[in-house]
Design goal:
By secondary structure, this protein is mostly helical. It has 2 domains: 3-230, no CATH class; 250-353, name from scop. It has helices at residues 13-21, 29-63, 73-110, 128-135, 138-164, 166-170, 177-217, 222-233, 236-257, 294-305, 314-323, 335-353; strands at 263-266, 271-276, 286-292, 310-312. The chain has a 4-stranded mixed sheet with strand order 3-2-1-4, with helices on both faces. The protein is elongated and about 130 Å long.
Amino acid sequence: MAASDEKTEPATPKRKQEARSKGSVAKSSDLNTAMMLLFGFILIYFLGGAMFSNIKDTMCFFLGNPFYENFDINTLQFLVLEISNKNLKGLLPILGGFMVIGIMSSFSQVGFKLSPKALIPDFKKMDPIKGLKNLVSKKSLVKLAMALVKLSIMVLVAYFSIRKDIEPLMELVSMEVEGIFYSATSLIFGLILKITIILLILALFDLMYQRWQFAKDQRMTKHEVKQETKQQQGDPLIKSRIKTVQRQMANKRMMKAVPEADVVVSNPTHYAVALKYDANKMNAPKVVAKGLDIIALKIMEIAREHNVPVVEDRILARILYNTVEIDGEVPPKLYQAVAKVLSYVYQLRNLVGK
């Protein structure tokens, strides 16, 4: 592979945004699962008693109901509504909690973003040959290895937890049904909590890996970065041509202002600056045109054609060219030098007038 074809450059913001719009983001499904297990466990721990009580009441109501002798459609409808109502009271808070936890877990990883493009079916993914290649790819092998590591760790945690609690488990045989239920529930909850915490830690490592892998997959070649820059900023050749045309148009407008100038200060061949001053409309003299070399000669040529005086002042011409933009006013520090030139021009006009 050529060096220019190697993906060595980090993804640009535009590439990241395009990937995000397609639903391609760095996230860990294991983190969602771990978060739902952990907070779901907490919800069930605090709300499970109410749910169990609702189930118990439902069973008592269902088994102790006297309507079975004359069982008809109305009785069935009544039973279904009552049982549903009792169960939903216990289940809805837990189900709603699971939904909120799932949304918050996804939001914490990728933020809020609707990706309609992700809903469009991609038939390329249904290619069986490509699917077989993906099964034996490096990513698949890494996922398999990570899954085996997670499974091994959880099995070890479960084994040592059960081994530690083997004596309490043996005592269940001498307990009543209610005692067995509460003791078994306590042991199971303890085991689930340990496994969930381990899974959450592993999920955090998986999230870091997924972000690293995503950044690696999104890398670009230097050529791709250059092409994207061209698309965003425009082709340099086209931009250069546009600037040339704009400069030519600006020069034409500038040359039209030369005949209206009061004087042109020259270098005499390298710099030319056309000045205009109207005491009734301007606070200070303005530079209406300026140029260097060929443009300077053109300004002086137009000035002579329209009887605009051309005064040679090498230092003043250079300073005006370098410090004052077109249509800009002469700065106060140059008032005296410019006033001398304008005074000379006005005296010359008066002499010619006489």
